[in-house]
Amino acid sequence: MIERIRAALPRRPLALKPYMGAWRGWLLVVLGLGAGAGIFAWIGISLAPGVVDDFQMRNRAQPVSMARVVDGRCRSKVAILHDCSATLVTRGKNGEVRRQIEQLFIDFHVGNWTVQVMGDPERPEVLTTDVGLDRIWHRIVTLALFALLALAIPFGLYRYVRSQGAERRRLAAISGQALEPVPLHLVSRNNNTTVVADAAGHSYAWTVPQRTKLFGLGPDQDGVVLGLRPASGGEAFPLDEKLRRVELTDHERAAVKRAREG
């Protein structure tokens, strides 16, 4: 079969195209930067000010009499991550004092929370809860973990784009020259990474979308797909079922498919 496919392929140099375009990678980086910036904005606006105030008042906070909790609730994820929010209300010298709080922390807890409103004697307008004060270090660690996540998302995506650039350079090294067909054994397909091996046992990892069907060499060769490599040797690149990753005319693609069918 490979000989028939070799005869069907044109003799001119053939260009190969990556399965994932460069623009997709940079789009992921932009989205990652947006996600990281969003997490930092959420930390800076909703969480960090309360942590700073509570840390400053942790040793002098006192219960506030006649205070009440409005719309207080805690949402828990698998009893580890807790997000508690409420409006705390009391009476001050200049009238009613209201403070909206949001406290996020990691702790092992199951069930309801009993909350006591706490205040800062030096700053009567600063209200918090005993739950938040008791877990001030939990909250600091949780904020640090989310900050690391905000940094890791764009950094991880940038590393992915760098690896894709290296793969495109590998492909460019074998593209645009005389190529020959080779059977490749499909070793694995994990997410978007496909690993193939040639008859000599050399394996090659390429980015191929999971949904992409590769050009199989027939039911009698299960797990064997068509690849192209330079006639002088080198890495082999697996082709898709529609042969869109190699620059062929429609007539040439049809000829290769007929060659597979015999």
From TrEMBL:
<keyword id="KW-0472">Membrane</keyword>
<protein>
    <submittedName>
        <fullName>Uncharacterized protein</fullName>
    </submittedName>
</protein>
<keyword id="KW-1133">Transmembrane helix</keyword>
<keyword id="KW-0812">Transmembrane</keyword>
<feature type="transmembrane region" description="Helical">
    <location>
        <begin position="21"/>
        <end position="45"/>
    </location>
</feature>
<feature type="transmembrane region" description="Helical">
    <location>
        <begin position="136"/>
        <end position="161"/>
    </location>
</feature>
